[in-house]
Specification:
extended, Arc Repressor Mutant, subunit A
Length: 290
């Protein structure tokens, strides 16, 4: 068996693509790989040869299809072979038709998805934020909240970026409210560096440093069979005769998590519920900076 540890990144990407397509779709040929990676079929022939030498008895050549099929002994060596891995690649392809090499894995099957908002983040603003995070200084910003009609100026001392599903936030100490909070990047209109020292140590950001256990269960209105399939859908485990998805997260993330799953106070999910309903009262999206 030959080692592939010495090969370059581009070739490794092609080999992983070959393996993934063979595993999930059952057929992979030179022409398709050549088209996806924009390299000659001669290069792809060498890739197939290397893969078969590195991992013998993995691929069988189908003369009639002029393509390779996974053998009965096939198992992934480069990728994990997990459903989540493949669906993540497929989701990348569906959502953005990204130019990332492996996102093209979805070209072999029909797939679509819901449109995702293409929000715009000011590059100059983001650059100031990332530099402030890296260098540990503050920022003077103009911020448009949803609780005030006009933008207001404030000084932030950021210490982390947070992805909340559809948008990015910066976690920071806020001079205006004199507390830590989350600020949506798209709502920061301008930003420039500030040398003013932060009045609070980030160690005092309790909601960032402390965690909350959230337990999600099937809705009580479901039948036993329905509850079982919902448990599978959400990755719940059987604990003391009930299905539960137990997940621990930073306290500042809980409101977004509940909102995302329609478990917050103002929504209602027909299929899942909180084991501890009081969490919906304690954690709400909103406030002055929303």
């Amino acid at each position: 068996m030959h080692s592939i540890d010495h090969i370059g990144f581009a070739q490794r990407q092609r080999l992983q693509y070959i393996e993934s397509v063979a595993y999930w779709e059952g057929l992979v040929g030179r022409k398709r790989i050549s088209s996806v990676f924009d390299v000659s079929e001669n290069h792809i022939t060498q890739d197939f040869s290397l893969y078969r030498k590195a991992f013998p008895d993995q691929l069988d050549y189908d003369v009639s299809a002029r393509s390779y099929r996974p053998s009965r002994k096939f198992r992934p060596y480069i990728g994990t072979g997990s459903a989540d891995e493949y669906l993540s690649l497929l989701r990348t392809h569906v959502e953005g038709h990204s130019t990332a090499v492996l996102s093209a894995i979805g070209d072999g099957i029909v797939a679509t998805g819901l449109p995702v908002p293409k929000s715009e983040i000011d590059a100059a603003v983001l650059r100031e934020i990332t530099r402030a995070l890296r260098q540990g200084h503050g920022l003077k910003i103009r911020y448009q909240s949803m609780s005030h009609e006009a933008p207001r100026e404030r000084t932030l001392w950021p210490h982390a970026l947070v992805y909340a599903g559809l948008r990015w936030h910066v976690r920071a100490y806020d001079s205006l409210r004199e507390c830590f909070g989350d600020f949506v990047l798209q709502r920061i209109l301008t930003a420039k560096a500030s040398k003013v020292k932060c009045p609070q140590d980030t160690k005092n950001d309790v909601e960032w440093h402390q965690e909350e256990l959230v337990e999600v269960i099937p809705s009580a209105s479901l039948s036993v069979n329905q509850a079982r399939v919902i448990a599978s859908e959400y990755g719940m485990k059987a604990i003391q005769n009930e299905f539960v998805w137990e997940t621990t997260m930073k306290r500042c993330l809980v409101p977004y998590f509940l909102y995302w799953l329609r478990l917050d106070k103002d929504a209602h999910s027909p299929f899942i519920a909180l084991k501890n309903p009081s969490l919906a009262e304690r954690y709400k999206i909103g406030g002055e900076v929303s």
